[in-house]
Design brief:
CATH architecture: Beta Barrel
Radius of gyration: 18 Å
Number of helices: 4
Helix content: 10-25%
Distance between the termini: 36 Å
Largest sheet: 9 strands, mixed, barrel
Shape: globular
CATH topology: Lipocalin
C-alpha cells in the first residue's frame, strides 16, 4: 500500500543491526563535501530483463559455453520455470547487477561511513563501505561480493569484487535475467546519480576477463517507489502447490 506509515519493523531492525557494527573512519574530505541525496525507495524502471541496450556483450569462449547452458525465464530464450536453471528459482542470491532487475523495490539509506541497501527480494541487505578502506588482502567470495564506494561530484561510485560467479549447470550466476554469465573475477563498477526528484541513473560497467573479451557498460534507470518493502520469503514460493513456480516439479 502507498507509503503513509513508518517503515517495516524488519527494515528498522536490519538498520539498527548495521548501525551497531564497528565502523571505520570517514575521511576529512568526505565530511567537507555535501553528499548527493540518493536516499529513498527505488525500483527498476520499465520491464527490462537485461543490460543489452548497446548490443550483445563480447563474450569469450568460456562465456559463450556457459551462456549456451543457461535456461532463463525471461527474454527471447526463455523456458518454463520447471525447465529453467535461473538462480532466482532456487532461492539463491542473483548477485549484482541482476538483483536490480527483479521487479521489486529496494531502500537506499545513506549513513556517514556506509550506504545500506535493503532489498525486498530475499529480504537481504547490502553494505557499501564509504570510509576509505581497501579491499581485503585475502578475498572471501560471497553471494553479493564486497563493495566499496565514494562520492564523485553528484554521483555515488560503487566498486564490487569477490562475488561468487558461475559454478555449474545447476548453479548459474548471471549479470542479468537473460543468462549472460560472470565469473569469480568480475569487477562491477556502478555510477549512480539522481536525474530528477523521482529518477536515479545507474551506469554499470562489467569487467570480467574470464567471461568477456573487454569491459562493457550499460545504463539502468530506477524510479522512486510509492510502496514500502514487504516481506518476501522465497522458500514459501517454492513450496507453493503451483507447478509453474516449482522448478523440477512434475
Amino acid at each position: 500500500m502507498p507509503s503513509a506509515c513508518p517503515r517495516s519493523l524488519i527494515a528498522l531492525a536490519a538498520i539498527m543491526a548495521l548501525v551497531s557494527l564497528p565502523t571505520g573512519h570517514v575521511d576529512a574530505q568526505s565530511r567537507e563535501r555535501p553528499a548527493p541525496d540518493l536516499a529513498g525507495i527505488w525500483q527498476v524502471a520499465g520491464d527490462s530483463d537485461g543490460l543489452m541496450e548497446a548490443g550483445n556483450p563480447p563474450m569469450t569462449a568460456w562465456g559463450r559455453e556457459r551462456f549456451a547452458l543457461s535456461k532463463p525465464i525471461a527474454g527471447p530464450r526463455s523456458v518454463s520455470a520447471t525447465q529453467a536453471n535461473a538462480a532466482e528459482l532456487t532461492c539463491l542470491p542473483m548477485g549484482f547487477p541482476a538483483t536490480y532487475l527483479r521487479p521489486r523495490p529496494f531502500d537506499l539509506i545513506q549513513l556517514p561511513d556506509r550506504i545500506v541497501m535493503l532489498f525486498e527480494v530475499g529480504n537481504f541487505w547490502r553494505v557499501i563501505h564509504m570510509d576509505g578502506r581497501d579491499f581485503p588482502d585475502v578475498p572471501l567470495h560471497t553471494w553479493n561480493g564486497y563493495s566499496i564506494g565514494r562520492y564523485e561530484a553528484d554521483a555515488l561510485v560503487i566498486e564490487t569484487r569477490h562475488m561468487l560467479g558461475w559454478q555449474s549447470e545447476d548453479v548459474q550466476r548471471w549479470v542479468d535475467r537473460l543468462g549472460y554469465p560472470f565469473s569469480d573475477e568480475l569487477v562491477l563498477t556502478e555510477r549512480l546519480r539522481r536525474i530528477d526528484e523521482n529518477t536515479l541513473e545507474n551506469v554499470v560497467t562489467i569487467d570480467d576477463p574470464i567471461a568477456y573479451e573487454r569491459p562493457w557498460s550499460s545504463v539502468m534507470t530506477f524510479e522512486r517507489s510509492e510502496y514500502e518493502l514487504s516481506e518476501f520469503i522465497c522458500q514459501e514460493l517454492m513450496l507453493s502447490e503451483l507447478p509453474e513456480v516449482r522448478p523440477g516439479q512434475e
